[in-house]
Amino acid sequence: MPHLNRRQFLTLSAGAAGTVLLPRCAGNQAATLASPNVITSQAGLLNVSLMARQDRYRIGGQEGQVMSYNGQIPGTRLEARPGDTVKIRFENQLPQATNLHYHGLHIPSTGNADNIFLSIPSNETLDYEFTISNNHPAGTFYYHPHLHGTVAEQIFAGLGGIFVVRGSLDEIPEIQAAQEEFLFLKDFSLDANGQIPTPGHMELMQGREGATLTVNGQINPSFSIPTGGLLRLRIVNASAARFYRLSLEDHPLYLIATDGGAITEPVELQELLLSPGERAEVLVKGDREPKQYRLLNLPYNRSGMGMMGEIGNMGSMGMMHSMNGMGRMGNASVTQSPQLLATLVYQDEVSPIPLPKQLIPVEALPEPTNTRRIELSMAMGTSGMGAGMSMGSGMGMQFLFNGKTFDMNRVDAAVKLGTVEDWELVNSDPDRMDHPFHLHVNSFQIISRNGQPDPYPAWKDTLIVRGNETVRIRIPFQDFAGRTVYHCHILDHEDLGMMGLVEMS
Asked: What range does the record give for the signal peptide (predicted)?
């Protein structure tokens, strides 16, 4: 089993006591927001209603107004299998237009499937429908709004949910025997009036972050692990801009799946870094002293300015990281101390369950038929501002691909179905900010970082491109003709222009 060397885990101070995120219910009575409802496909059909709306919640000790799906954060968990048809009646009760994006699913980008160009006005309903292909990989996916210009606002306010495709990974005996938990990581911020604050200049530049961190809509929830058993954590970074550098006290994490599904064999990690939109699945062995352990968000600086402590040499898949180098320091996006996310509690003893030795092979892709260079950068001013952009929205900030902001009427990459392309992603941002790059519809593999081969093949749809870094990815364009997008998943950057249009034919 591959093992990545890591520094010793730090002994860290205890976090705040658990507080829950509570909705205001009828009669002013509060109900605990625990795990969301789960709707599973039946007889090949997943049929569900989703409503986007504003709600009153208590976040920590403060009541405020957020956005939710079906009155929950995260929204209703949707579970389907390859070959299933998915029908979603979507009702928009927000005071502004919105839509849905099925982040990571390999489905059409046209019609009423994963079409981010649809706009659903306030108080209107749209029926989404698509079929999950018979060969779709099992994995942890993510649905959220994607109407350009409002994406950061709506996701930061709370909108998002988990979409699961069950399949061959779930049927591996050791994984089937593991206890399963979902971790939906989401930060919040409320002003003195209980409103989501309007972002200032620096927040737009860095991407907005909230000081209150929640897991499944709760502050410091507890998860149990059977002594001797395995715990399967399926983790979604649902924040608009915050990166999570995760570490579980006194426990290694065994990575078994990334954005696009299973990897070939488990990889042992001491830390796991997830940028916005990334997902990962890990196993935890219940082989430590039976007591409580903390899941922590360790300091990480994504701003690129200055220096800070031991944050550094980022490894495979943008997620496996050897924290031995010098990090970069800059502004409020840097968390100076560990943050408590959740607590792991040992419970009943079971017969020992071993780690699986093999998972699902990651197929090698053929050599590319075409190579593109995409440069990620930032500028100030008004020239080159794309459709829907304005000075007021970003105070003159522009986030760019190849020197251009997004224009819905301009095709940035015309690709042929049935071909494989290499895209060279070059981060030339003058502030050396990390940018998570996300491609809709088609997953890819990371080939190299700064010319160094990526040692652990995996299917990804979101990856971190750090300041002054060049990452080469290989993309098979398959199955679905139509227009879709690639963009930075620091969602303020997307709204301020860092998005490109792909036409597949």
From this structure: none
CB distance 97 to 388 below 8 Å:
no
Give me the residue spans of the domains in the chain: 370-504
pLDDT above 90 coverage of the chain, percent: 78
pLDDT bracket for residue 128 (50, 70, 90): very high
pLDDT at residue 54 is higher than 80: yes
Dist CA 204 CA 186 (whole Å): 18
171 vs 302: CA distance, rounded Å? 37
Calpha distance 469→328 (Å, rounded):
14
Decide: helix, strand or coil at residue 155.
helix
Tens-digit pLDDT profile for residues 254-263: 999 999 999 9
Bridge partner residues of 125 (DSSP): 91
Q: Residues 18, 212: contact at Cβ < 8 Å? A: no
The C-alpha atoms of residue 448 and residue 460 are separated, in whole angstroms, by 13
Burial 10-48, CB ≥16 within 10 A → b, else e: eeeeebeeeebbbbeeeeeeeeebeebeebebeeeebeb
Q: Which two tokens stand for residue 505?
A: 């034919």
Q: Rg (Cα) of the chain, in Å, rounded?
A: 21
Peptide bond into 74 cis (omega under 30): yes
Q: Kindly provide the b/e burial profile for residues 372-385, where b requires at least 16 CB atoms within 10 angstroms of the residue's own CB.
A: eebbbbbbeeeeeb
Instruction: Report how many helices (DSSP H) and strands (DSSP E) the chain contains, helices first.
Output: 5, 34
Instruction: Give strand ranges (E) for 270-419.
Output: 272-274, 279-285, 292-297, 339-349, 370-380, 397-401, 413-415
For the chain, what is the largest distance between any 2 Cα atoms, rounded to a whole number of angstroms?
Answer: 65
pTM here is 0.88
Closest CA to 442 of 137, 100, 111, 144: 137
| Start-to-end CA span in the chain (Å) | 41
Could you tell me how many residues make up the chain?
505
Reported as a pLDDT band with limits 50, 70 and 90, residue 25 is very low
- The CA-based dihedral angle spanning residues 447, 450, 455, 460, taken in that order and rounded to the nearest 10 degrees: -50
**Of 33, 49, 257, 231, residue with least CA distance to 165:** 257
Q: Give dist(CA 160, CA 487) in Å, integer.
A: 18
Total Cβ atoms within 10 A of residue 437? 27
